[in-house]
Amino acid sequence: xxxxxxxxxxxxxxxxxxxxxxxxxxxxxxxxxxxxxxxxxxxxxxxxxxxxxxxxxxxxxxxxxxxxxxxxxxxxxxxxxxxxxxxxxxxxxxxxxxxxxxxxxxxxxxxxxxxxxxxxxxxxxxxxxxxxxxxxxxxxxxxxxxxxxxxxxxxxxxxxxxxxxxxxxxxxxxxxxxxxxxxxxxxxxxxxxxxxxxxxxxxxxxxxxxxxxxxxxxxxxxxxxxxxxxxxxxxxxxxxxxxxxxxxxxxxxxxxxxxxxxxxxxxxxxxxxxxxxxxxxxxxxxxxxxxxxxxxxxxxxxxxxxxxxx
Amino acid sequence: xxxxxxxxxxxxxxxxxxxxxxxxxxxxxxxxxxxxxxxxxxxxxxxxxxxxxxxxxxxxxxxxxxxxxxxxxxxxxxxxxxxxxxxxxxxxxxxxxxxxxxxxxxxxxxxxxxxxxxxxxxxxxxxxxxxxxxxxxxxxxxxxxxxxxxxxxxxxxxxxxxxxxxxxxxxxxxxxxxxxxxxxxxxxxxxxxxxxxxxxxxxxxxxxxxxxxxxxxxxxxxxxxxxxxxxxxxxxxxxxxxxxxxxxxxxxxxxxxxxxxxxxxxxxxxxxxxxxxxxxxxxxxxxxxxx
Amino acid sequence: xxxxxxxxxxxxxxxxxxxxxxxxxxxxxxxxxxxxxxxxxxxxxxxxxxxxxxxxxxxxxxxxxxxxxxxxxxxxxxxxxxxxxxxxxxxxxxxxxxxxxxxxxxxxxxxxxxxxxxxxxxxxxxxxxxxxxxxxxxxxxxxxxxxxxxxxxxxxxxxxxxxxxxxxxxxxxxxxxxxxxxxxxxxxxxxxxxxxxxxxxxxxxxxxxxxxxxxxxxxxxxxxxxxxxxxxxxxxxxxxxxxxxxxxxxxxxxxxxxxxxxxxx
Lengths: 310, 291, 265
Hints:
By secondary structure, chain A is mostly helical. Chain A has 13 helices and 2 strands.
């Protein structure tokens, strides 16, 4: 570089040196880059390792029609094991569906109250409370389903078993609602105040402002909140393991016991031999869960990001 | 005439408004009340069994009596090792995203990966832990396997909290430092991190709380139903609070009613206390103006 | 190579201008805010830049310190040479910035103590001893006319000072770099006239130690301080000349007279 300018003084040449601090900065950049890329590596790693363990089943025993369309999950049958997850999908879907029925209206209602009506200290307290509710571990929720909801349902509806779709659905709804409330409230908060002011200037009342202006403007964010709730319900393990009754069933009513995809893995993995078809089939369910939640999270992210780009 | 009809309309609108307001308040309360009832039930039914002895003695008679000390001790082990693994990694990732990363597809890929790490079901993380740490890396069912599984699962908590507190430091401070010839790292170390460290700590406490409550990821990677001894190193199995609650409430016959309630109460208290500390910390910070 | 340079040092220092700018054009995205700038700033002179708002003065200073790298939207064409080195080709931009002190109209007190605000730059270049730092901090705060107001509370936060005090803290921080080139952009905007005069007196002394570029919207300030002055208008450099000549009407472009006499801007 110095050749370009033969008259350059020594003093000037001296300042443009890469010193220790310059190299430290580059080293730090490389290290934190590794931290950033680790998230990608872990997601890929999760997919690779569960596929690796499930691959034997996928190549050997897997039949698309049996796996997705048969309601018989009988991996331990000695003569003819069958690996149908239809009943498990139905279990997961019924519980998640009921949970959303409970959680969507209440969490959106709560988000509107906290975000648009409540003010000052009351608002702060409610937000803290919602945050604390979201922190209750799922195994505690499962225990509540088992020991509080179960006798309650038997008593109220006069049914023989209280561990069923209703129990797990309500538990899961209560579990998912605080998180959905937080995300939905963020979405409402993201609507600029000038929208509200403009609507109020036109003479709209408070509730008209909320329903005709704020909610429509936040609808993508609210949809994202619902999707994340669905993803959470779909992937929840301990609570559904303990509260559904864990019986393989295509449910006909909310009082039927069911079994969820996640719970099946949790209940059976410990009893299988590593590398056995049953063990590999459980990992194949894991691959299915991974792919579905990946799609749900991706859509939620795209929808929410769509709002921000507006 | 005009005035009169308008005030009627106003009255009607006010009524509708207060109707809506009450409706939404009801919904909020309906969401919160059952949980408060449940918590009170836990305290009512489990409170009697809680004592210093309960916390500090071993379970006896096939876990139908005695205390929970090995489970408490094991949870502390698991959480500590998980933190050691995830906090440096999470903080590094957040520094990269907040201070170095450009606005490009690669950064979006990292963010997407973080969202998915948080969104993948905990049982899938458990399967990963079995396939990767227990089998492939040969750590066996051990504290190390369980903690690493949890560390990866809760990594997004640290990353998101750290990133938010780094981004809360105005860009003008960075530019002022760069203008003086400070390198990016010098700027981060001397100005950005000192002003973000409390926010990061808030995130770490949240992670402790999350890690304490998780059950599925440790079931097959390192937590045992019952162990007659305490773990000596990270390569040993251990009992843990969350799994212990599952075990005493579903797997052990003839457990007296108060015992699982007591375990649930201790577990939920640990989690809620840590969350409250984190929230209180955050509010304290918000009140302290530094610029 | 080094020995050749050494031999030439005595002549070269006089020949190489502290700053040389050729065919410089600056744009934000598709909008060009400054173009066709050619000028030299000699070592140990005060170089004034005057002109109405939005004539590209601040962008000019930003490029000299390579602040375009902070903003992906900002780019420049042409070249700027610092000590004869093209700032495009530098191996270590941090070293350039540590030799150039800048003060912008929007003051930024760092969220550190007042003391640490001023001690930061010396610390970064390796000054460790408390006594040395004390001396530097006191001297810089004195020169920025802030010492008397803050000497009893050096441990309070610099970011919580008043606007005018933060402005002077920023000046003190720039001085703590012991820069070869000091660039001031409307430094007196939030400072009272008496204090402004005190800082102006300091600048006249500092000329012995460093080169100064003074961007100002107060034409009389340029007249009081600058050896030479450039007049920027609508993204172009209309005129560069000896300050006294410009202010006595000896100009090449009538618009310069118009601006100096307050007819527009």
